[in-house]
Amino acid sequence: MRTTFIETGLKAVDLFAPIPLGGDILVTGDPKAGARLVGTELVCRFARRSGDFHGVSAFLDPAVADAEDYAADLQDAVPVGAELISAETIPVERIRQANGVSAPPLGNVVFAFSHRASYLDAFRQAVRSVRFASPRVPLTSFAVTEALSPGGFDARLVLSRALAAEAVYPAFDATASSSNARGLGEAAPDHARVAKSAREAIARALSRLRPGAINDPAWEGNADPAERPSVQALVFLSQPLFCAEAYTGMASAIVPVAETVANFRTILEGRYADLAASRFRFLNALDDATLRA
Fold this sequence. Notes:
Layout: E1 5-6, H1 11-16, E2 19-20, E3 24-29, H2 35-48, E4 55-60, H3 67-77, E5 83-86, H4 92-98, E6 108-113, H5 117-133, E7 139-144, E8 155-159, H6 161-165, E9 178-179, H7 184-187, H8 191-208, H9 220-223, H10 228-235, H11 245-248, H12 257-268, H13 288-291
Parallel strand pairs: 3-7, 3-8, 4-5, 4-6, 6-7
Antiparallel strand pairs: 1-2, 8-9
Helix pairs in contact: 4-5, 8-10, 8-12
């Protein structure tokens, strides 16, 4: 079966909003919820897979606040293998040149970081133009922004300030994120069922969430063993990031989507219902010895 999605190794993305190969993806959310952080992390992850992509490019809008500092931070965080471009306008020809007539199976990935609707509209038009000129080479695009929520995307990665305040990073809102990607059952059997169950469980936890709740043993989500799995699934959305390793000291990892599905299924089945949800924070994958230490 031909690959139809790009596996990122980010648990929340691969389970709830898998990336359609050659699709248009929106990364957005509340201001300061971490949309830019997730965009940076995705650039890092794709750049590390130099054999899978012909090119990874990121266009930075110099009109955004602290653009120069962010460009420097992004340059420090991203490994060799990605081209970072600060541009007031989207250079269509540069995208076209990168999207050559031959490329690895996953083709090319291009990002635009901006909070201006006009900049992102120009980016999307440029991507469409390049796809029309080179229809056989997959070109997957990411529009990374805050607050803006335009339509017409194949996947939406939505970040929540409420989750960021609870130290769930990335602060991925499973209830608002979505994707039209197909074929994940081949790589991760039971993906659709587990994703649906996990989304419903996390929605229940979010409906009762209040500031400081996750660390409060008296909160009903922690006190009731029947509800703990839903809160554990919510906290398990967090994961160490490659772009933050130097600051957090926590090692990141590429988590296979099949492992992610199996881990969430285990949580939802109640295997760890006797444990506090906080134990599931910043884990790449489940490990009995670590959880019960």
